[in-house]
């Protein structure tokens, strides 16, 4: 890989917002893009789909990783280091996430199980993966960055102001992500760490309900991946700063 290329790994990028972000990034010849997901077949299918598009110009590789499995994370780090060929990882986009909060889910599985399963991805897995990739990020001379895909739903300030108690588990997991991002930024001042809110999008996460097209919502992810923007730590949406 050319050292001039910006290496970017996007977790959960074989579908939804992650795939839309990867699609935007795949058009850029100065990018070495790593499409990442837990299912090897789906990741490969996503890469092949991107490469078939006429404007594809980036160098694209695959990384298979389940962020709920520590051994999978460590294997992914080793695989990425090999594929980088001694170069650094410049940008980690923590996009993988889920929402498991229909009334039927909670009644069937219980609130504790909903919390455990949601936090295992949105908080615990994201934190462990970020820590694992830090050594590769710190090799970067392009001011390494971690872009965490969050939600204004996780803003404690907004929750208190709106008095909206819905989606308690998902909101709590995104509040935890905010705390993780702040801790990463404070502990690693040489890494630019932000949380970005892409807004409500028509994806699997919200069962393809209402919202913007993922190609629009993912643009903020791409913008903060490609450039150092805002403060570290910082929380941003397309409209500007989001309160923690």
UniProtKB/TrEMBL annotation:
Lineage per the UniProt record: Eukaryota, Fungi, Dikarya, Basidiomycota, Agaricomycotina
Family, per entry: Belongs to the short-chain dehydrogenases/reductases (SDR) family.
InterPro entries: Fungal_SecMetab_SDRs, NAD(P)-bd_dom_sf, SDR_fam
A GO biological process held by the record: secondary metabolic process
A molecular-function term among this protein's GO annotations: oxidoreductase activity
GO-annotated cellular components: cytoplasm
Protein name, UniProt field: NAD(P)-binding protein
Pfam families hit by this protein: adh_short
């Amino acid at each position: 890989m050319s050292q001039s290329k910006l290496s970017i790994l996007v977790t959960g990028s074989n579908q939804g917002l992650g795939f839309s972000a990867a699609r935007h990034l795949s058009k850029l010849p100065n990018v070495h893009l790593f499409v990442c997901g837990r299912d090897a077949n789906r990741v490969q299918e996503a890469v092949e789909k991107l490469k078939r598009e006429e404007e594809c110009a980036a160098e694209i590789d695959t990384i298979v990783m389940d962020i709920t499995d520590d051994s999978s994370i460590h294997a992914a780090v080793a695989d990425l280091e090999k594929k980088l060929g001694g170069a650094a990882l410049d940008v980690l986009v923590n996009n993988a996430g889920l929402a498991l909060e229909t009334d039927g889910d909670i009644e069937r599985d219980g609130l504790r199980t909903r919390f455990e399963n949601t936090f295992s991805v949105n908080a615990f897995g994201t934190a462990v993966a970020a820590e694992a990739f830090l050594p590769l990020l710190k090799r970067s001379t392009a001011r390494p960055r971690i872009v965490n895909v969050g939600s204004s739903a996780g803003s404690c300030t907004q929750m208190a102001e709106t008095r909206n108690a819905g989606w308690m588990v998902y909101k709590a997991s995104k509040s935890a992500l905010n705390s993780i991002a702040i801790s990463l930024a404070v502990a690693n001042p040489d890494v630019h760490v932000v949380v970005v809110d892409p807004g409500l999008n028509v994806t699997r996460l919200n069962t393809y309900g209402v919202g913007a097209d993922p190609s629009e919502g993912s643009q903020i992810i791409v913008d903060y991946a490609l450039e150092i923007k805002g403060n570290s730590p910082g929380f941003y949406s397309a409209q500007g700063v989001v309160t923690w």
